[in-house]
Specification:
This protein is 25% helix and 27% strand. With 360 residues, the chain is of the alpha/beta class. The chain folds into two domains: 154 residues, NAD(P)-binding Rossmann-like Domain (Rossmann fold, 3-Layer(aba) Sandwich); 160 residues. The strands form three sheets. The chain has a seven-stranded parallel β-sheet, with helices on both faces. A six-stranded mixed β-sheet has the order 8-11-12-7-13-14, with helices on one face. A two-stranded antiparallel ribbon has the order 9-10. Helix 1 crosses helix 9. The two termini are 15 Å apart. Keywords: Oxidoreductase. GO terms for molecular function: oxidoreductase activity.
């Protein structure tokens, strides 16, 4: 079966997704939504390079996208990274109401809507998306939190090998040297700032129960059917002794070059689930911390004990494993989402499925 797919956004994740849609034999590209005026009117193939013309021209006309006949929209703009959730939510609801299924990576708060959890960042998203799905007889799926799977479904899948679990510890390690956005690298993540300077990500994660990253821990606890109690947050930084040049600009000496964030979740008043994020622009600081490009480590203490890791790499487009992982997780879900009953899916309710494709 072939699926007609629209790609919305052509940034780090969007270009990976666009390439997969063009190359995948069971997908037909039917539209491309762009934000850069210089891309409007460009054949989708020219946004990738090295591809034969597709005949599909990029547009910034949302009404034109809504008028297209498509089975699914891969919605992967920057979303709430640069905007409030309102704009992306409006887009998503219009697409769903028009009868198009949507797989999305745009608003992290849309990753999980468990009963009884009302997060400020999500607002009335759940109700609005449900109404739009009912109106358009469509289905919505959000892939997870940066990139999804690795810090929620992967630990849950590996727990199927476990008997007694004493402690579950998942670690993300990401090299940020090739990330080009100055806004994201410095203003959001705090690289290049003095170690005691506030950063947006620290403020976001420090407000634990209002943080989108909390959703990953909550999803693990809910998947294991245990009640999550208190969650403690901590942050560590390491500074560079010399200037470092990265894609986003110059990182001065004496400023942050690596950060480590911890969430430690308690079950029955003892630490049971730890999620840890280590983001770097160099391996020369904090050498005792794990290193890698796009790497995830899982350690489960118990009987049996488990240690496992995932390393994701690509040389195409953004060249970042996290970006291509978001794109492939989205697109591999398209067939399941298109065949699902109308409504909202998340990583716990999405039916088990494989992914990837083989060229003819």
């Amino acid at each position: 079966m072939s699926y007609r797919v629209i790609q919305w956004g052509t940034g780090n994740v969007g270009r990976h997704a666009l390439r997969a849609i063009v190359e995948r034999p069971d997908f037909e590209l039917t539209g491309v939504r762009v934000y850069n005026p210089d891309k409007v009117g460009t054949d989708a193939a020219d946004l990738l390079g090295g591809q034969p013309p597709t005949g599909v021209k990029a547009t910034d006309d949302v009404d034109a996208i809504l008028a297209l006949d498509a089975d699914c929209v891969c919605y992967s703009p920057l979303g709430s990274t640069l905007d409030e959730t309102g704009g992306p939510l409006d887009d998503i609801c219009r697409l769903l109401a028009s009868g198009k299924n949507v797989v999305s990576s745009a608003v992290e708060f849309h990753a999980y809507f468990p009963p009884g959890l009302a997060m400020k960042g999500a607002g009335d998203s759940h109700e609005r998306i449900e109404r739009a799905c009912a109106q358009g007889k469509s289905t919505f799926f959000h892939v997870g939190i940066n990139p999804g799977f690795t810090m929620d479904m992967w630990p849950l899948h590996m727990s199927r090998l476990c008997g007694r679990i004493d402690h579950l510890h998942a670690i993300e390690v990401v090299d940020m040297t090739r990330y080009p956005s100055f806004h994201m690298v410095r203003e959001i993540m705090g690289f290049g700032l003095p170690p005691d300077a506030p950063s947006a990500i620290d403020a976001h994660m420090g407000d634990v129960h209002e943080s989108a990253f909390y959703l990953s821990m909550r999803m693990i606890a809910d998947g294991l059917k245990v009640e999550l109690g208190d969650v403690e947050y901590s942050r560590e930084v390491a500074v560079t002794d010399e200037p470092i040049s990265i894609a986003a600009g110059e990182i001065p000496a004496g400023t942050v070059a690596a950060v480590k964030f911890h969430y430690r979740g308690f079950i029955n008043e003892r630490p049971a689930i730890t999620l840890e994020w280590i983001w770097r622009i160099t391996d020369s600081v904090a050498p005792e911390w794990p290193t890698g490009d796009s790497r995830w480590i899982l350690r489960v203490e118990g009987n049996p004990s488990i240690e496992s890791s995932i390393d994701i790499g690509t040389t195409e487009d953004a060249g970042r494993g996290t970006s291509i992982a978001v794109a492939t997780l989205l697109l591999n879900a398209v067939p399941i989402v298109c065949e699902a009953p109308p409504g909202i899916l998340d990583n716990l309710s999405l039916p088990s499925h494989g992914g990837g494709y083989f060229l003819p």
